[in-house]
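Example for tutorial group B:
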């Protein structure tokens, strides 16, 4: 039996191995013929394993001002990483991985500003865990070109860089809530607010890709089968903002913020003929390049309704003129007013004393609440007045091309609300709604839609994709009414009885406008806040008065005022600096008598020039510089060569023998420019224009000296409170 089994087993094993061999050979033959294993192509798998594929990021579109100045752009930074896998080094004489961990950590630590031990620990942990490469956290990201070059100069094996795009804002805190911010989501820059968010789809491009085959050392093959899909870059957005006007606004608001520490500020400048927003800013604001702690994310100009106060009387006046019930010579008893027996008594801003029996024209000039209430409730009638409010779109959003707009609300259910709305209390509005309504006053009765996006441009071809045009969205009053309203509003500035007299006058241009001093509700007590500074002080002005080119609105909430200061001081500082200089910059012809035409010139280079020759050169250009001292040699000029200036801007020339100029009559802004130029230790009393200086005219001084100034505002009347 045993012999028989012994004879059979070799045959069995031979048959078994033959079948196995045939199966394996058949499998190999099948794989060779079909090129597949378990439905997976061997060739495709091999290609995939030896193919490198990288994304070619598309550039995000740039946001420009109206003249092509970059406001938000893509900026390249670098991320550093270390290759720790020895297999990456093919030639020991030319290492491609981190060879000396201690040396690498020691040299990287001061540049990345992290502990040497932390770097060493990261590298050792990566080696222990068999990782190919390692990064250094947030400290190793967003490195600038200088940092990259400093690390490269160390010639550390295994240290490499990846280019990364970030969003960069060249002007820092500049229309920040308007331009907006971006966030990095899944390695893509995404707009989250402002224009960045509103136009995100257009600004965002489509990434491309590149692939090629490589060997095990990660080098391209001789025939790499390279495939490139080019990226589609994002398109560009041009805003209506003007970088120069916006800078004037930002500078003025920053000065007021520093001096008066207000709770809130808003300001906006608009082209009266088109509805284009030329400048817009808020405080608090933020620097998008370095956020830190942000106190205010909202674009208050469009997103924060409030009770506007007496600026609303502009539209009460216009409604009365349009309705045919305005008689400037008609008189009324000022002081207090009670619309109905059951309604509450309202009063004028001077503790309800009023000014006796006065004309309605004087009532508007003095910003009488009683005058506005009588016009709306008795002359126009409450229901008809409501129709005018709606015709001015005070119950609607302006539909400005920005995200987050919130409309104000017309409170008009009860008699008291119908009365107080006439002078800006109770009902709410936003600054942009006031500006939109004001375009009807400034533009012959035609109300314009405000807009901030001028055009969009294809980034690669420069083809214009879309372009906005002025849009008339209503005609609440006639051209004749608009003209008459402007004439009345001009007297608010020119009349000695006007609340804007000697406060909002410009040097070369007439102004039509209305002051406002509005109450606001304290969120803690849910009652109107009281106190001398507890108001929103504002001004809505248009210039030149007879045919406005620019409209500007400024509001300052709860400034910290000196005992002798009025609430108009911070508001007028912003309005006058921005409006006067903007009109000059735009080459709007001055309309006041005995004014010279404004010329714009470029500052010439002063290097190598003696004082007398350089002063003569500026004088021929219509510029009258202020020479600081009597030296023959120029040591500095406050403006760089090529800077465009008007003949009325102050140009300071420092000589090698410094002597104090006569500062009498200088504005506070001029004093600050002089302080910064001469690096002086400056203190001041009062506000307005300089009347005294501690270092007398002609006295020698040096940089860093102490200088005390006394300033005074022109005499003005009591302000109104609504």
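The residue assignment follows.
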């Amino acid at each position: 039996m045993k012999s028989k089994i012994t004879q059979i087993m070799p045959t069995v094993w031979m048959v078994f191995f033959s079948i196995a061999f045939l199966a394996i050979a058949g499998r190999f033959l099948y794989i060779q013929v079909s090129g597949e294993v378990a439905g997976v192509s061997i060739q495709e798998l091999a290609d995939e394993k030896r193919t490198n594929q990288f994304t070619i990021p598309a550039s995000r579109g740039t946001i420009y001002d109206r003249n092509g100045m970059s406001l938000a752009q893509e900026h390249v930074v670098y991320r550093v990483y270390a290759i720790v896998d020895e297999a990456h080094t093919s030639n020991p004489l030319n290492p491609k991985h981190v060879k000396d961990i201690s040396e690498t950590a020691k040299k990287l630590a001061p540049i990345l500003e992290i502990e040497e031990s932390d770097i060493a620990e990261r590298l050792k942990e990566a080696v222990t865990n068999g990782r190919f490469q390692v990064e250094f956290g947030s400290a190793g990201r967003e490195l600038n070109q200088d940092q990259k070059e400093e690390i490269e100069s160390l010639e550390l094996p295994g240290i490499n860089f990846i280019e990364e795009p970030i969003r960069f804002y060249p002007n820092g805190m500049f229309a920040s809530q308007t331009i907006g911010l971006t966030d990095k989501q899944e390695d893509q820059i995404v707009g989250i607010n402002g224009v960045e968010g509103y136009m995100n789809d257009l600004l965002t491009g489509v990434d491309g890709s590149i692939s090629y085959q490589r060997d095990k050392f990660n080098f391209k093959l001789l025939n790499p089968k390279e495939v490139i899909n080019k990226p589609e870059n994002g398109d560009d957005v041009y805003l209506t903002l003007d970088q120069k006007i916006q800078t004037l606004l930002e500078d003025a608001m920053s000065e007021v913020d520093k001096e008066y520490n207000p709770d809130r500020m808003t300001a906006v400048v608009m082209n009266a003929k088109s509805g284009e927003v030329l400048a817009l800013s808020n405080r608090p604001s933020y620097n998008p390049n370095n956020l830190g702690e942000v106190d205010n994310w909202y674009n208050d100009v469009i997103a924060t309704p409030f009770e506007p106060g007496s600026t609303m009387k502009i539209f009460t006046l216009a409604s009365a003129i349009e309705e045919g019930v305005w008689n400037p010579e008609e008189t009324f008893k000022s002081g207090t007013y009670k619309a109905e027996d059951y309604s509450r008594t309202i009063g004028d801003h001077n503790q309800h004393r009023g000014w006796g029996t006065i004309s309605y024209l004087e009532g508007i000039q003095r910003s009488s609440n009683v005058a506005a209430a009588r016009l709306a409730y008795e002359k126009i009638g409450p229901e008809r007045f409501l129709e005018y409010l709606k015709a001015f779109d005070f119950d609607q959003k302006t539909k400005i091309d920005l995200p987050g707009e919130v409309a104000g609300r017309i409170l008009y259910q009860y008699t008291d609300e119908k009365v107080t709305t006439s002078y800006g209390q109770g009902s709410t509005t936003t600054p942009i709604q006031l500006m939109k309504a004001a375009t009807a006053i400034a533009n012959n009765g035609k109300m314009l839609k405000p807009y901030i996006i001028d055009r969009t441009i294809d980034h690669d071809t420069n083809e214009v994709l879309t372009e906005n045009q002025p849009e008339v969205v209503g005609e609440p009053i006639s051209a004749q009414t608009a003209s008459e309203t402007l004439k009345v509003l001009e007297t608010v500035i020119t009349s000695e009885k006007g609340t804007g007299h000697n406060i909002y006058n410009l040097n070369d241009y007439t102004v039509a406008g209305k002051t406002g001093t509005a109450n606001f509700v304290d969120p803690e007590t849910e009652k109107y806040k009281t106190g001398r500074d507890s108001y929103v002080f504002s001004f809505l002005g248009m210039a030149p008065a007879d045919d406005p080119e620019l409209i500007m609105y400024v509001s300052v909430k709860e400034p910290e005022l000196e005992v002798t200061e009025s609430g108009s001081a911070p508001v007028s500082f912003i309005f006058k600096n921005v409006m006067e200089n903007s009109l000059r910059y735009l080459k709007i012809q001055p309309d006041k008598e005995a004014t010279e035409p404004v010329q714009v010139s470029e500052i010439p280079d002063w290097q190598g020039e003696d004082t007398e020759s350089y002063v003569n050169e500026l004088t021929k250009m219509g510029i009258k510089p202020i020479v600081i001292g009597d030296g023959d040699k120029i040591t500095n000029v406050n403006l760089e060569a090529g800077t465009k200036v008007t003949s009325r801007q102050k140009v300071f020339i420092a000589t090698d023998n410094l002597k104090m100029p006569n500062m009498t009559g200088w504005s506070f802004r001029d004093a600050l420019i002089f302080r910064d130029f001469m690096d002086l230790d400056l203190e001041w009393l009062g506000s307005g224009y300089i009347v005294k200086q501690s270092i007398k005219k002609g006295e020698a001084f040096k940089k860093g000296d102490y200088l005390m100034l006394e300033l005074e505002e022109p005499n003005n009347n009591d302000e109104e409170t609504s």
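The chain has four domains: 2-49, 53-238, 243-288+297-585, 600-712. Compare this with the pattern of hydrophobic and polar residues in the output above.
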